[in-house]
Design brief:
Strand order of the largest sheet of chain A: 2-10-9-8-7-3-4
Low-confidence stretches of chain A: none
CATH class of the largest domain in chain A: Alpha Beta
Number of helices of chain A: 13
Distance between the termini of chain A: 28 Å
Oligomer: homodimer
Order of helices and strands of chain A: HEHHHEHEHEEEHEHEEEHHHEHEEEH
Strand content of chain A: 5-15%
CATH architecture of the largest domain in chain A: 3-Layer(aba) Sandwich
Shape of chain A: globular
Helix content of chain A: 40-55%
């Protein structure tokens, strides 16, 4: 990213930034103008709030998540009381790890997974164990195999949670089906009894609302009887404005109380100004209209990337068409590596195009070798011309290696 | 705080909230209106920025701190490159503890000190050792005594930093003189050699700009040759808008790199919208004018509290007149306790007035008994009438106990 920012002629298909042109400048101007119009409405936005977060924003968010989940299951209940507003969903991920895990503990992750989360685990001295993925998300048979092997080695007592990027996963773009979430919770519950403590499912729904094709999948909150093991991390950063950085967590006890205490220590509450901005965006309907516009924008950018890939990439490179999110995940043939030290990466940089090497998204897991022949390609932040030209440069680079 | 918020007729002299009436609603409206006027200026504010923070805000902040420190010493150099923008200074305190200390390590703190910092230490399994204070701050002779006693017990290797709330300390209102900061750094350096590692001075300057009498004291950054051991935590929350929650740290290597990595894991950067708001507040001169207004406001509120104390408190209760900040620190005679389980606290609540019991601000230190006969009284958030009536109720409560 530093590299991309310092070389203006470089096209970055690496950054997870969102689309620049569709950032809601007019919406935010109008919403903040209204909020700050009078001292009466403006002052509470410029004063400290509570550590848990603005009650109005929590109520709007609870309603919003309930609507997304179709108002069914345990997710139908009002969850604003067990919600904590955070600085993006990233802070929620960090605090969940801080609350649940001690040094040396094990977190199950998808293989591959969100690389910043792997950084969190590493920084806290936690171990990741990788669970394979299929085209509809987590491989449940492999999850059971991993849990069983941990049981055999007496390490189940160190397993504290399963981390799932359940919508248009970063980096693969894969969405985990509702049935798989339900199945995963059932498996965790089974092994809990042997572990002697709760094993939580941390559902990272950061990309959920960036869907531009197909229908939304219900969250793990909607699994009957599952909500006391589900930590749901959502955000308004990606679907509204990454510069506003407001996310939220929905947490069962005793995790809620532990995370609230941690939030008090980290910063005792997210900016009230940002929270009230988001509350007004939701209440006014501007948020929903923006999400609609965003979908129409991303479907177009994804199509442009898809066409560029078809037109420029050698035929032995594989990828799946995403239904949402920001990424294509391309698999190279066996003889090409993609890591930062690879010929491809260096040649791509020389051709002024940057991608995220797939290897960065794989946990250190002694059970398998780290794959090194994938690329994460983002259509989020670039212009349409950047996407076309970036893929063209990458295609040229790939062909030059043959 | 929860208690105060739920009982509207209760007057809280407890909360560390800032003055509500002087919150800069008009300034923020004008600044955000300008920032969001065009898509060109608005979009960067609504997009992700860097983990370290907005370069313009860092440059304005570096200039600002340099000006406060009189442009002398090592503090005269541009420190924007080793600055990290944070969610209030609170996040900086948390990350400094996270970067420097392992479980069981020792942090030296003033006795008493900021109670949320004690909460951070506790939550991270760190031990606090208390250093006495005089009217001009830290008692250097006692600091040496504490260090010497830690050396004798072989615990010096666990000492990682000294935490100093150097301006209008929370809770006592005391400001540490420049000479004492310099002296403390010299002592730390001396014991470093025996400890075998660096011992840092974490200077919490949260209240620095809330001065309404007397002259500013230079920060520890201005101590010649001292800056490679000083972590300076500043904030715009209290002097501008607590609802905006922007703070910053100035850090020496290798702490800078460690904290930057932690910030990446916590939230990979503070809201760009808030950062650009603050950068514009500084650049436009609105920030400085607001700080001036705030001083005139707080000098008045402090005077009202002072007069109310003189008029209502029994003569055997002691306090010092603060030169800035938000607090009076009142010492009760020997026969009255102030803790949450004391007669006084309960009677005060029954009379609908809340204070912070002094005991909460003292670290658990086996070397002394925890004092329990002080009250922190804030003139920050209440109206003038609240301050008068609150102190009157408290005076009545105190007299009723005789």
């Amino acid at each position: 990213m530093q590299l991309a920012l310092s070389q203006p002629r470089l096209i970055s298909l690496a950054a997870g930034f969102t689309d620049n042109e569709s950032l809601p400048v007019e919406d935010v101007r109008a919403l903040l103008g209204g909020l700050l119009r009078t001292r009466k409405s403006g002052r509470p936005a410029l004063q400290y709030g509570s550590t848990q977060g603005d009650p109005m924003l929590r109520q709007w968010t609870a309603r919003h998540v309930r609507r997304l989940d179709g108002g069914t299951g345990a997710g139908a209940a009002d969850c604003s009381d067990r919600m904590i507003v955070t600085n993006g969903s990233q802070q929620m991920l960090y605090m969940a790890a801080e609350a649940l895990c001690d040094t040396g503990d094990i977190v199950l992750v998808e293989d591959p997974t969100y690389f910043v989360f792997l950084g969190i685990l590493q920084s806290r001295g936690l171990r990741a164990r990788a669970v394979r993925m299929g085209v509809d998300g987590l491989d449940l048979a492999h999850l059971e195999k991993v849990l069983e092997s941990l049981r055999k080695r007496g390490e189940l007592r160190r397993v504290k949670m399963l981390y799932l990027v359940s919508y248009f996963q970063n980096p693969t773009g894969v969405t985990t089906s509702f049935e798989k979430k339900s199945g995963a919770l059932k498996l965790l519950r089974k092994y809990e009894e042997i572990a002697g403590h709760r094993i939580y499912l941390l559902e990272d729904a950061a990309y959920r609302e960036l869907r531009f094709r197909g229908r939304d999948v219900k969250s793990a909150l909607a699994v009957g009887g599952g909500t006391d093991r589900v930590i749901y991390a959502g955000t308004y950063s990606k679907p509204f404005a990454t510069g506003a950085r407001v996310g939220f967590g929905i947490l069962p006890e005793p995790v809620f109380t532990a995370v609230l205490r941690i939030k008090g220590n980290h910063d005792f509450g997210t900016s009230n100004l940002l929270q009230q901005l988001l509350a007004r965006a939701l209440a006014s309907g501007r948020y929903e209209r923006h999400v609609g516009r965003l979908g129409r924008r991303y479907v177009r950018k994804a199509l442009i990337m898809s066409q560029a890939l078809k037109g420029n990439f050698p035929p032995d490179i594989e990828w799946q068409e995403p239904e949402g999110g920001l990424y294509f995940w391309a698999k190279l043939p066996r003889d090409i590596r993609s890591g930062t030290k690879s010929k491809l990466f260096k040649a791509a940089l020389a051709n002024r195009v940057l991608y995220v090497p797939g290897g960065l998204c794989y946990a250190d897991d002694p059970a398998r070798q780290k794959p090194d022949r994938e690329m994460r390609l983002s259509f989020g932040s670039g212009t349409e011309e950047d996407i076309r030209e970036g893929i063209k440069r990458l295609g040229r680079t790939l062909r030059s290696l043959r």
